[in-house]
Design goal:
This protein is an alpha/beta fold. Helix content is 32%, strand content 23%. The chain is built from seven helices and eleven strands. The protein has a seven-stranded mixed beta sheet with strand order 5-4-1-6-10-7-11, with helices on both faces.
């Protein structure tokens, strides 16, 4: 896929990095500050966005326990694109809403989980390209395993057609006004940002993500990410 088509000239692109989760499956360790390739997970995520040429402004959303650590990290690294650092809410969607509220004069917003440190410039640019027509695009990968729909008694109810199933990731890219309106109009729980757009009857484009673009949730994920980073090398 060609990456020559990016947001139209004079359109501002911002990013909201959501890093306000509790990370309970990591035990006492804050997964965002767990060491990965010699630096915090969050550092790798932020660097990918700060060095991406189309990103002009970053909002970082943190929880009360890592707010000060996040501020120190940004200051130490000199990441001037991180113009706002704010507290998140009870749910992920509340945290995203807080981040969106800090943005001014933005045409496009890229929403990404802070715990996905292997995001690349290519994924960001592809999302911006694919979102041009519909105003909404999400990274995803085809499901590799057979899935079963199971009832409360652990009995199989259905085996969906795997060829139609994709596992959704971030980045998720939206016209700012579209995603802001979706958040303003819905308080119901949502598993991802695109779900709110879908509830409005708006079509969302899926584009090819990366199987390497894993989310750090357990100690095993950290070990896998270390291997993937060694294979990937320093380039974006």
């Amino acid at each position: 896929m060609s990456l020559s088509i990016v947001p139209r000239p004079k359109e501002k692109v911002c990013a909201v990095i959501v890093a306000a989760g509790r990370g309970e499956r990591m035990g006492d360790m804050d997964k965002l500050f767990a060491p990965l390739a010699g630096e915090p997970v969050l550092s790798l995520t932020l660097r990918a966005f700060h060095t991406c040429p189309v990103i002009e402004e970053i909002v970082l959303v943190l929880n009360p326990h890592n707010l000060q650590r996040g501020r120190r990290l940004v200051e130490e690294q000199g990441w001037w694109k991180v113009m706002h650092i704010c507290l998140g809410g009870e749910r992920r969607q509340d945290s995203v809403r807080e981040g969106l509220a800090r943005i001014n004069g933005c045409d496009w917003v890229v929403i990404h989980d802070g715990a996905r440190p292997l995001v690349s410039h290519q994924l960001i640019l592809c999302g911006l390209q694919e979102a041009q027509d519909r105003g909404a695009a999400v990274a995803a990968v085809p499901v590799r395993d057979t899935l079963k729909v199971v009832n409360p008694g652990l009995e199989v109810e259905e085996t969906p057609n795997r060829s139609t199933l994709w596992a959704v990731q971030t980045p998720q890219v939206f016209r700012y006004q579209l995603i802001w309106d979706a958040y303003a109009r819905s308080q119901a729980p949502a598993s991802d940002d695109a779900s709110l757009i879908e509830r409005l009857g708006h079509r969302v484009k899926v584009y090819m993500g990366s199987y390497d673009n894993i989310k750090i949730t357990t100690q095993e994920d950290l070990a896998i990410a270390e291997v993937l980073l060694q294979r990937k090398g320093p380039s974006q």
